[in-house]
Amino acid sequence: MDVSWNDLQRWTPAGLEESYDLVLSAQQETEAAGDQLLSAKTNFSGEGQAALAFRGIVDRYRAHADDLEARLTELQIVLNQAAEAVEQLAIEVDSTQAAIDAERYLVDAADRVQLPDWLIEQFAQAKKQRSTGATLLDLEGIALQRRDELQGAVDTLREQAKSVLRELVSGLLRVRDGEISDAAQVLADSNGSDAAPQEIIDAFGQASAAQVRAMWDSLDFNTQRTLRINFPEIIGNLSGIPLLVRQKANDSNMNAYLEREEAARSSEEIQTRIDELTAKENEGNLGRKERAELADLRDEAQRRQAVRDMLDGDGAAVFDPSNNRVVAIEGDITSAPEHLITVVPGTGTWMGSFADGGVRDLPRDLVSGLQEFDRSAVAFVVKDGPWASWAGENSNMLHSAMERMGSTVANVDADLRVEDFDGDPKETAIVHSAGMSINSAAEVQGAHYDEVISIAGSYMVSDWEADQTTEYTHIQYEADAINAVDRSDWHTTPNESADFDKVILDSGGRDGVDGHTRIAQGKDRNPEGFKSILDKIVDGLE
C-alpha cells in the first residue's frame, strides 16, 4: 500500500467528513427506530400466543437495530479518527512542500528530493575552479544537508499516510465483520436505555479527541445532558467534547469552585482580614508571618475574582484549578468565527492573571476591535498546566519545560481542528514573552497557524523552524527588556530572526520593563501595541 508524494498532496479530509456526516445521520435514524420498537413492545398490552409472538418479533428487530447502531457507532469512530489524521497530514504536507519550493528544490517521480539542474551545474563548475569556487563548495554541503532534511520529512509523511490508510482499512474491515469495540457497544446500548453514565465516561477512556467527538455525537441529547450535569469536571475538560458543551460544564465547575471556597472561608471575611493587615502594613507594623498571610489572602481573593470574571464573561474551555489548568474563552463560540486567536501568555501567568485587567484584556479587545471591521472572532487564552517561571523545573530558560508546556498548546490547536468551525477561519497565535518559546515548541509538535504574532517574544526552542505557510511578525516597544536574550549561541529570538517581520514602537521614554509588560495589555493601557496587533490581524484577513 504505497502513497506517492504527488498523491499525498491531493489528500483532503473532505470525503471522510462527508461520509462521517452520512453515517451519523444513519446512526441517529437507527437509534430512533430502535426506540420506536421498544416503545411498541412496552405499550402493547395484548395477551396470549399472538402477543408473545409479536413481542418476539419486536425483540429480534430490536436486536438487529442494536447491532446496526453499534456498527455505525464504530464506523463513526473509525471515520472521524481518519479524517482528523488526514487533516493534520494535509497541513504538514503543505508546509513541507512550501519549504521545498522555498529552496527551489524538486521532488521527482521516485519521491526523491532533488537539487535543480542549474544549481548542480553551478556546483560542478565550482569544483573545476576550486580556487575561486570555495564559497560555492561550502554552499553545496549546506544545500545537500537541507535536501536530506527535506527528504526525511517527505519519507516520514509518506509513512504516516500509509499508517493512516492501514488503520482506516483495518477499521472498516472490523465494522464489516461485526468486531465492535467495547466502547462502541456501550455507547450504542446507552441510547434510550438505563445504562449507567459512568460506563459511558469509562468508554471515553484514553480515546483521542477525534474518537471522543465521534462517541459524543453518537449519543442522544438526553444522554449528553446527563453526562454534562453529572460529570462536569470530566466533560468540561475533555478534548473532543464540543466547545459549547465544555463551556456550559465549566460554568458549573466554576460555580462549584466558588461555592467550595466560600464555604471554607467567605470572601467577606478574607477582605476584612486583608484590610486589617494592609492597615498594619501601611503603619510599618507587619511581621514576617503576617506579610506571608497577606500575600496568600490577596492571591486567594484574586483567584476568586478571576473565576467570577470568567463567569461574567465568555467562560472557559478548560477549568481545572487543582491541576493549574485554565483556557479562557473570549467571544461567541456559537457563531461561525472568521478568526480563531490563540493567546499564549508569558512567565508568571497564574489563575489570578485571568481576572479583568489581566491576560484576558488584550484578546477581549481584539475580538471587539475585529467586530468593528465586520469580522467575527473567538480567542482562547491558554495556561493549561504549570506555567513558565523564573526558576525551578518550569524555568523559562529550560527548553524541556517549554516543550512540555508546548504540548498543551498543541492540544488546544488540535481541539480547534476537531471542532470543525464553519467557513475555514484564519488561525492566529499571539504569544507574549516566554509564550513565544512555548508556542514554538507547540509548532514543533504539530500546531499550525496562518499567522504568529510575537509580542515581545523571548526565543524559539532549538528544534523550531519557520513554517513556510505561516506569516510571522514580531511587535515590541523599543529597547524592550526581553532583548537582553538576543545574541545567544543556544537559541534564536524573534527580534533577531529574519523569518519575522518587525514592528518596533516608540516607548515614549518609558523603560524596557514597562514596555515588556505594556505590550500584552488591552487597548486602554497599550493603545499603540493594540493598534499594531489589530492592524496585523486585519491585514492577514484581507
From TrEMBL:
<feature type="coiled-coil region">
    <location>
        <begin position="58"/>
        <end position="99"/>
    </location>
</feature>
<keyword id="KW-0175">Coiled coil</keyword>
<protein>
    <recommendedName>
        <fullName>Alpha/beta hydrolase</fullName>
    </recommendedName>
</protein>
